[in-house]
Amino acid sequence: MKSNISIQQTYPFERYEPLIQKAISFRHVSMEEDVERLHSWMHEKHVIPFWNLNISLENYTAHLQRFLQDDHQTLLIGEIGGVPMSYWESYWVKDDIIGTRYPFGEYDQGIHLLIGPKEFLGKGFIYPLLLTILYKKFQVVETNQIIAEPDIRNEKMIHVFKKCGFQPVKEVELPDKTGLLMICERKGFERRWTDWQTNKF
């Protein structure tokens, strides 16, 4: 990608979130530091149905190495208060299979995510996390929309994406799932971001 949009790839990124009174941060996945952590998350009951990566450590290591070498995406660990608790795949649509499913813009970006440890589920942390990564991704001024394609069975994530400004577009058949293509336009995100900051979310 052009150097003027390299800011999107600049991590670690951290901001203090007053509404949860904790720092939210994102850093690059480290093979050495994170492979066993991610492998364990892929075996969590709430993750297995939607990621299908509950495989051996050897096979997952090979998978992660392959993904780390794929320069159309950036793999991130999301942390709250310095505690690793989520995994994110941030990617450029034009180099991804989803780009064959809709008329994308040159700088459209996409996102995959999961929360790993069970103790972080149901606490509302997903909202400040997702809004923060969207804020970061929209720092690329050429990006006008960000997409997601959650599994159509994943009603909880579809609800989360809608609340953060994504609009459903259509169902799409992908190699590993039937997904719901959802698009978050810049203006829609900015409204949600303002609502969050003013506690009207």
Q: CATH homologous superfamily of the domain at 3-142?
A: Gcn5-related N-acetyltransferase (GNAT)
The CATH first-level class of the domain at 3-142 comes to Alpha Beta
β-strand amount: 25-35%
Shape: globular
**Level-2 CATH architecture of the domain at 3-142:** 3-Layer(aba) Sandwich
* Terminal residue distance: 34 Å
| CATH fold group of the domain at 3-142 | Aminopeptidase
Alpha-carbon Rg, integer: 16 Å
Structural class: alpha+beta
Give the SSE order as H and E letters.
EEHHHEEEHEHEEH
Helical run tally: 6
Residue stretches low in confidence (pLDDT < 50, at least 5 long) are: none
What's the oligomerization state?
single chain
Mean pLDDT: 94
Strand order of the largest sheet: 1-2-3-4-5-6-8-7
Main sheet makeup: 8 strands, mixed
In helices, the fraction of residues equals: 25-40%
> What is the count of β-strands?
8
Write a structural description.
This protein has a domain at 3-142: Gcn5-related N-acetyltransferase (GNAT) (Aminopeptidase, 3-Layer(aba) Sandwich), CATH 3.40.630.30. The protein contains six helices and eight strands. The chain has helices spanning 31-41, 48-51, 57-68, 126-137, 155-163, 186-197, and strands at 13-17, 22-28, 73-80, 83-92, 109-115, 145-148, 167-174, 177-185. The mean pLDDT is 94.
